[in-house]
């Protein structure tokens, strides 16, 4: 399978810079989390990577080949997004057929089974679907398509808790049965924390974090205790945020901890991915 490399990718809309010189690489057969607040540039980035919109500068290549006007390369990628490329009068089963014509080897068995699991009528016109069922329809196409890289932009939009749980379960089962790369762009960090292997955290059009989940969380710490003791212990460390309750304070530290002697009044615990994300992307924080 192929790898995708993004080099110095910048995107401007008028005078506004949405993406600022991004550099990273996507490897085969991994589940990535593309995490960022609303307006961080996630959807723009995915649209650039699949050649739906032009970049301002930089390159996107697959095994060294540019994606620009390269249908052979673009067939390796599929983007599920809020924007629909299908005629709204088409029925669900017709979109399955159209996708098979475009990509080949569409997994009709999987898509039809999932339609039953989710309660989606295959004869429904996609323009008549509710927000939740429109998302389900898009999920089914993304799961059935034969592409090597599947980009899922807010794949649980409008889904209730049961359907979200079913989606995550089926995603992992499909990944186990047919490994390929999934990139999940979402703001529901807690729900995907146990699914993703690698995180890309984006803020204001720049990549803050590009590393494995375990490697990332190994550097994320919560230091708790009396305010003065906590501030003294974390002085000189990369404190990315804090919370207080009465006289007790928690400083959130990302990075290596000094070999200081830990006071009896202070404790150190691991930070989860959602808490790390919130503190890294809060405006005004480092």
Strand order of the largest sheet: 6-7-8-3-9-10
Strand content: 25-35%
Q: Distance N terminus to C terminus?
A: 37 Å
In total, how many domains does the architecture comprise?
A: 2
Classify the secondary structure makeup into a structural class: alpha/beta
Query: Helix tally?
Result: 10
Rg over C-alpha atoms, rounded to the nearest angstrom:
21 Å
The whole-number mean of residue pLDDT values reads: 92
Helix content: 25-40%
Give me the strand/helix succession.
Answer: EEEHEEHEHHHEHEHEEHEHEEEH
- CATH class category name of the largest domain: Alpha Beta
> Biggest β-sheet: count, sense, barrel?
6 strands, mixed
Would you count the extended β strands for me? Answer: 14
CATH superfamily of the largest domain: P-loop containing nucleotide triphosphate hydrolases
CATH topology category name of the largest domain? Rossmann fold
Shape: globular
Q: Give the low-pLDDT segments.
A: none
